[in-house]
Amino acid sequence: MKTYQVDNEGFYGEFGGAYIPEILHRCVTELRESYLQVLESESFRQEFSSLLRDYVGRPSPLYLSRRLSEKYGCKIYLKREDLNHTGAHKINNAIGQVLLAKRMGKKRIIAETGAGQHGVATATVCALLGMECVVYMGKTDVERQHVNVERMKMLGAKVHPVTSGNMTLKDATNEAIRDWCCHPADTYYVIGSTVGPHPYPDMVARLQSVISEEIKKQLMEHEGRDYPDYLMACVGGGSNAAGTIYHYLDDERVKIVLAEAGGKGIDTPFSAATIHLGRLGIIHGSKTLVMQDEDGQIMEPYSISAGLDYPGIGPMHANLAAQRRATVLAVNDDEAIRAAYELTRLEGIIPALESAHVLGALPKMSFKPTDIVVLTVSGRGDKDLNTYLNYNLQ
């Protein structure tokens, strides 16, 4: 049987590794040598579990969406990460990494953010645990996610708008890495997705795996079995997807379907569908699929969703696609917006634009009436209301 887990060098098949400047070698090595020891310790597990339960509000519900099920001819359960404190799955990872940083003796936390949910989650945990917090966010995203910016400031974080490049997630990540290079001794970089140099992709996946751990228990309660026929999640960097599928990676009974941001179409210059359009390259310390031109220069991605607007993909997901363990569908802006309104009107749930992309994959699927589908709603749509209301759906 194939295995899809990370190896000792931080590779998933041919993807992953740690390609970093010399100045960060000590930081990344220190993290690699510490993270498993801390994450697997009893004291960390107890504190992490306690905060997830009493502060975040986990377990998040597994909700049988009767009207969506009826429409698509199967049984669709929604894993409701939108009901977590701060409104998305990002808080799971932020709590874990800031607890780790404290145990490593770090005093200052930096983070990048696209849609703002990871920034808000990191700022929230830093406020809770009394840590200094600096968040880098592309100026384009600052403007389209203004409410999240104000939330971060209210929580005590310093928000730096980034004006280089496309002024989105890639550029925010670049600036965060520059900051880390300048302050390697006292600073801990909380990466929000399954991207970056090893051990970040594995660490974020482990911290988010609480999602699939809960799915197993909740399906057993609902269905008398602990696995679905399909797992579905949106994927940009890939943290909510990694958490959704983590405990099912080697279970071939479960089909994995990932939805990436098609933008205005994968046949246009305006897309963020990295798995469809990317080639092997290195971005932010990891060898993975990267959207690039003939000269190997990173192309500017486009998505209506700030959280999926990234020209790379986590190495776990690049490997799953290459091994054909996961089916990856590109969902364009129009399809995502339609799907968001459909869920809102059928179930009274307004999803984040990121989650709307995986909902937009449902019409592309062919289910049997007996199929059990678990679809992760990674976040709530409060932050995206202006985009929804201003979008001219053709």
From TrEMBL:
<dbReference type="InterPro" id="IPR006654">
    <property type="entry name" value="Trp_synth_beta"/>
</dbReference>
<feature type="modified residue" description="N6-(pyridoxal phosphate)lysine">
    <location>
        <position position="90"/>
    </location>
</feature>
<feature type="domain" description="Tryptophan synthase beta chain-like PALP">
    <location>
        <begin position="57"/>
        <end position="379"/>
    </location>
</feature>
<dbReference type="InterPro" id="IPR006653">
    <property type="entry name" value="Trp_synth_b_CS"/>
</dbReference>
<dbReference type="GO" id="GO:0004834">
    <property type="term" value="F:tryptophan synthase activity"/>
</dbReference>
<dbReference type="InterPro" id="IPR036052">
    <property type="entry name" value="TrpB-like_PALP_sf"/>
</dbReference>
<comment type="similarity">
    <text>Belongs to the TrpB family.</text>
</comment>
<keyword id="KW-0057">Aromatic amino acid biosynthesis</keyword>
<keyword id="KW-0663">Pyridoxal phosphate</keyword>
<dbReference type="Pfam" id="PF00291">
    <property type="entry name" value="PALP"/>
</dbReference>
<comment type="subunit">
    <text>Tetramer of two alpha and two beta chains.</text>
</comment>
<keyword id="KW-0456">Lyase</keyword>
<comment type="pathway">
    <text>Amino-acid biosynthesis; L-tryptophan biosynthesis; L-tryptophan from chorismate: step 5/5.</text>
</comment>
<dbReference type="InterPro" id="IPR023026">
    <property type="entry name" value="Trp_synth_beta/beta-like"/>
</dbReference>
<dbReference type="InterPro" id="IPR001926">
    <property type="entry name" value="TrpB-like_PALP"/>
</dbReference>
<comment type="function">
    <text>The beta subunit is responsible for the synthesis of L-tryptophan from indole and L-serine.</text>
</comment>
<keyword id="KW-0028">Amino-acid biosynthesis</keyword>
<protein>
    <recommendedName>
        <fullName>Tryptophan synthase beta chain</fullName>
        <ecNumber>4.2.1.20</ecNumber>
    </recommendedName>
</protein>
<keyword id="KW-0822">Tryptophan biosynthesis</keyword>
